[in-house]
Amino acid sequence: MRSVTVKTSATYEVLIGSGLLQKAGEAVKKVISPCKAAIVTDSTVVHLYEETVRKSLTEAGFSVCTFVFPAGEASKNIHTLSHLLEFLAKEEMTRTDMIVALGGGVAGDMAGVAAATYLRGIDFIQIPTTLLSQVDSSIGGKTGVDFIQYKNMIGAFHQPKLVYINVNTLKSLPEREYVSGMAEVIKHSLIKDQAYYCWIRDHKDQILSKDPDTMLEMIRKSCDIKRQVVEADPKEQGERALLNFGHTLGHAVETLMDFSLLHGECVAIGCRLALKISRNRGMISEKETEEICALFDAFSLDQRFDRLTPERIIETTKSDKKMAGGHIRFILLKRIGEACIDLTVSDEEMMEVLEEELR
Ligand code: NAD
Q1: Probe target for ligand 1 pocket from 130, 143, 257, with the most ligand atoms within 8 Å of CB
Q2: Minimal CA–CA distance to 105: which of 149, 9, 41?
Q3: Pocket of ligand 1 (CB under 6 A)
Q4: Whose CA is nearest to atom 4 of ligand 1?
Q5: I need a labelling partner for 291 at 20 to 30 A (CA). Which of 26, 117, 121, 214 fits?
Q6: Model-level pTM?
Q7: Which of 270, 283, 191 is nearest to 232 (CA)?
Q8: Are residues 350 and 310 in contact, defined by beta-carbon separation less than 8 angstroms?
Q9: Ligand 1 probe mutation, 235, 263, 267, most atoms within 8 A of CB
Q10: CA 283–ligand 1 middle distance (angstroms)
Q11: pLDDT value of position 324
């Protein structure tokens, strides 16, 4: 078992191991006294892991109920959230009860908003089951649901009491979802840690074959990078925005493709574009840009988005909530392992790299 301790407004552990779900109840009991626990999970994960988690929580003294929503990003909205809040009310959940987010980033983000808002805030824990949620979304307390065409527009910062990661859950994860999570892993290395970038490049075969020790090390390392960034800037007033590397154009593509591409796939698209803007500004070399793009390719993160025009993509970035004082808050790469916030990226610069990528 490996662990990372996150210290923000609250201190909590991220526990990382294999074969842990049967022991979830005992681990939760160490941070939350037995109470009523509402598991929030999706229509896929419920058949895979809900029974084990329910049994373990029940054995530890928790009384358990479960809310299930249809799997996928399309469920991450205020309608599902409203059903979830109604469910919590009908179950007569009180302020001393808790929510267990069991699933990927969608379950975690939505359960998190419910935990942040129901009765002005109740405890929640995260049991993430996708690579993306294990290395990124379950840590740091950002919760949210999509609203109109905006990603994560409604939400709050609300830290979990525990993040409980069982890497074995990745064995049932479809390959496309697994490699999509690699976009966030590669992003972590690019913005913060050159040595980690080299480690990912040198271990890509073990990562692709889901070698257990490699996965444990990779997830621990990514969780630790997320921890550092979140601790330095818990409410995204500065450095935490670096985690949005690849997200400005990535979110625009994700929205315009009507969520037919996965979140991580769009982050990879956005990272490539942001890289090329950085290259065009002379911040990183052509060789480094090619090498990084080849790493995304190695994980099949090379999705096409040809049916979109550069004009529509640029237009969509304008409504992005990351607009700061009329400027888009773009994240660029100074070098591998160091990113910076830039408010001056012009439409022309975006157009140039979009035309290159869509060629
Ligand atoms: P997801 O939750 O939709 O999960 C992807 C798919 O995998 C779903 O169909 C799910 O049912 C299935 N699944 C989950 N675990 C499984 C398992 N172990 N075996 C088999 N199938 C499994 O998507 P995601 O990629 O985990 O998360 C994407 C979401 O995370 C987006 O909404 C994004 O905005 C959000 N996000 C949030 C943050 C944050 O800081 N809060 C950070 C990054 C991303």
Answers
A1: 130
A2: 41
A3: 42, 44-45, 48, 71-73, 76, 103-107, 109, 129-130, 132-133, 136-137, 140, 142, 151-152, 169, 172-173, 177, 263
A4: 104
A5: 214
A6: 0.95
A7: 191
A8: yes
A9: 263
A10: 33
A11: 56
3-state SS of the chain is: CEEEEEECCCEEEEEEECCCHHHHHHHHHCCCCCCEEEEEEECCHHHHHHHHHHHHHHHCCCEEEEEEECCCHHHCEHHHHHHHHHHHHHCCCCCCCEEEEEECHHHHHHHHHHHHHHHHCCEEEEEECCHHHHHHHCCCCECCEEECCEEEEECCECCCCEEEEEHHHHHHCCHHHHHHHHHHHHHHHHHHCHHHHHHHHHCHHHHHCCCHHHHHHHHHHHHHHHHHHHHHCCCCCCHHHHHHCCHHHHHHHHHHCCCCCCHHHHHHHHHHHHHHHHHHCCCCCHHHHHHHHHHHHHCCCCCCCCCCCHHHHHHHHHCCCCEECCEECEEEEEECCEEEEECCCCHHHHHHHHHHHHC
pLDDT at position 239: 86
d(CA 243, CA 267): 11
Atom 43, ligand 1: which residue's CA is nearest? 137
Residue with tokens 């681990």: 27
Distance CA 218, CA 145 (A): 28
Instruction: Report residues of the chain scoring pLDDT below 50.
Output: none
Residue 21 C-alpha from the chain's centroid: 21
